[in-house]
Design brief:
It is a peripheral membrane protein. The protein is an alpha/beta fold. The protein has 20 helices and 20 strands. It has 4 domains: about 120 residues, 3-Layer(aba) Sandwich (Rossmann fold), CATH 3.40.50; about 190 residues, Rossmann fold; about 90 residues; about 110 residues, Syntaxin Binding Protein 1, Chain A, domain 2 (Alpha-Beta Complex), CATH 3.90.830. A hairpin with a 2-residue loop joins strand 8 and strand 9.
Length: about 575
């Protein structure tokens, strides 16, 4: 059950069905992302696809010798653009694939526009999501909430996107949702209704134990996206931002052009695949080993004296270049991460975050936060996240000083919009949305830290924070997840609410994090025979989560009379 494999299979089928010959691949903005995340351009070139074109930017001379594969979302805008293209076709043949279900009326409009009968195929291929990893998908939607409610267009996109995931994986699941969340309920019911409406598409063989779609609300765990991260993938996203498996380093001075835009894909990067879930200190040690391997291979290639030496060099050159590229990429990333950690006291910040999330001595933690907030080396966003965590933990603490901390942020020069995020975090995570109090002594898994010295000059703290989604899934896999807390949608329920589900798709409305992706990966490894996918409206770091908070709490700021400080 791999969403990457499912999307790749669709792309392979598109290219195969168009037959031999030179081809152009025409996409829209979203499907361009969907394709580029699972397929490198060099791979597609090997399949006789020589041109790539955006449908909204299409134009130019006719090239009738080319076949055109069209892969777009079935939106009104794309239908109009296709009509314009078909009325004056620039290519010899068109093979049209929609990434989701398309209205029959739209197909009729296309048929009427195809006067020259250049369309050879119109099909639905349900690759309507960004498959970031075999177990992780996203819709790249930020700001999907408006107050307590869904943004209407975001809800529609999410419903159709989840249904596309199910169809691509050939799953007709039971549907459960977080019972105390209206947001989760509306999404679950929307998916259920669309599955019922498209019941013919879901006519799959039914296994004895049905798959499960489990829908959660980001409000149930506001803490996880606020924390700094110390595993490789999550840390890169937190400090440098991973955008559809790419990292933009153009702001880093002194880099060559080929290192300013880095691709991080476990399919095409063996080092990344083996280290993406390792902690910062271990990465330092492993990069050292990678460099030593590269140096050995470089020495071997220094002596090319005979025909046999030349032959060996040519045979191993692609692998040599691949290792060279991996070394340059990961040394660059590690160097920038190390610089940020040292320059901005991130070890100290993260240590306080850990202790904030535990029930520690209030007076001591308050003193340490004040010290960090007044330290000019600490970044503004790290000061903000500390105060937000403090607000979530000590909002009602007798003798608390939230107002004093906010005033310190103000003195640092943080804008009113950023200061408002402190109260927004509390509003976002109202107590009723929490299956259990994240900060209670009974339910909190205490943080531990592990210091690893893997590379000289690199000392790394690995935080053992466990996201709520891990606890929920663990209860589910052990048959302990109560139906009163996570009810079924009546139209798509299971015969036995205590099934030990084997195929689970958990979706978090409001976005997921790479830390939660790691949790799902660990659960898959620890439970052979169980396959869990994680999806979200977006994959957040702290900065993008602030954008989510802004839209979700905008109406509170305008009408609420509540004062936290």
């Amino acid at each position: 059950m791999s969403c990457v494999a499912a999307v790749r299979l669709y792309i392979d089928k598109m290219i195969e069905e168009s037959g031999p010959g030179m081809k152009v691949l025409m996409m829209d903005r979203e499907t361009t992302t969907i394709v580029s995340v699972v397929y490198a351009q060099s791979e597609i070139l090997l399949k006789e696809v020589y041109l790539f074109e955006r449908i909204d930017l299409a134009g130019g001379d006719a090239m009738k010798h080319l076949k055109c594969i069209v892969f777009v979302r079935p939106t009104k805008e794309n239908i109009e653009l296709l009509v314009r293209e078909l009325k004056r076709p620039r290519y010899g043949q068109y093979y049209i694939y929609f990434s989701n279900t398309v209205n029959r009326s739209d197909v009729k409009v296309l048929a009427e526009a195809d006067d020259q009968e250049s369309v050879h195929e119109v099909r639905e291929f349900y690759g309507d999501y960004v498959a970031l990893a075999p177990h992780l998908f996203s819709f790249n939607l930020t700001g999907c909430f408006q107050g307590r409610n869904w943004n209407r267009s975001a809800l529609e996109r999410t419903v159709h996107g989840i249904v596309a995931v199910l169809l691509s994986l050939r799953k007709s699941p039971a549907v459960r949702y977080q019972g105390n969340s209206e947001t989760a309920r509306r999404l679950a019911e929307g998916v259920s209704q669309l599955m019922t409406r498209e019941s013919k598409l879901f006519d799959f063989r039914r296994p004895e134990i049905p798959p499960l779609l489990l829908i959660m609300d980001r409000r149930s765990d506001t803490v996880t996206p606020l924390l700094n991260q110390w595993t490789y993938q999550a840390m890169v996203h937190e400090l440098l931002k991973i955008n559809n498996n790419r990292v933009n380093l153009s702001q880093v001075s002194g880099l060559t052009k080929d290192l300013q835009d880095i691709v991080l894909s476990e399919d095409n990067d063996d080092f990344y695949a083996g280290n993406m879930y390792r902690n910062f200190g271990e990465i330092g040690s492993n990069i050292k080993d990678l460099m030593e391997e590269f140096q050995r291979k470089t020495k071997n290639h220094e002596k090319v004296e005979s025909i046999a030496d030349m032959k060996a060099f040519v045979e191993h050159y692609p692998q040599f270049k691949k290792i060279q590229g991996a070394v340059a990429k990961h040394v660059t990333l590690m160097g920038e991460l190390s610089r940020l950690v040292g320059a901005h006291c991130l070890l100290e910040v993260s240590e306080v975050e850990q202790e904030l999330t535990c029930n520690t001595d209030h007076a001591d933690i308050l003193k340490r936060i004040r010290t960090l907030v007044t330290n000019s080396k600490v970044r503004d966003i790290d000061c903000l996240r500390l105060v937000m965590l403090y607000a979530l933990h000590y909002e009602k603490q007798s003798g608390g000083d939230l107002a004093g901390l906010v005033e310190l942020l103000r003195k640092r020069g943080l804008s009113d919009n950023l200061l408002r995020m402190v109260s927004s975090a509390v509003e976002f995570q109202e107590r009723k949305f929490q299956p259990g109090d994240k900060f209670s002594a009974d339910n909190m898994r205490a943080f531990t830290k592990k210091v690893i010295k893997g590379l000289k000059g690199v000392e790394n703290i690995y935080t053992q924070h466990v996201p709520l989604v891990y606890d929920i899934l663990e209860d589910l896999l052990r048959g302990r997840l109560k139906e009163s807390s996570f009810p079924y949608v009546p139209q798509h329920s299971a015969r036995d609410s205590m099934f030990r589900f084997q195929d689970v798709i958990v979706f978090v409305a409001g976005g997921v994090t790479y830390e939660e992706s790691l949790s799902v990966y660990k659960l898959n490894v620890a439970n052979p025979g169980t396959r869990i996918l994680l999806g979200g409206t977006a994959v957040h770091n702290f900065t993008s989560f602030l954008d989510e908070l802004k839209s979700a709490t905008a109406d509170f700021a305008s009408r609420s009379g509540r004062h936290l400080y």
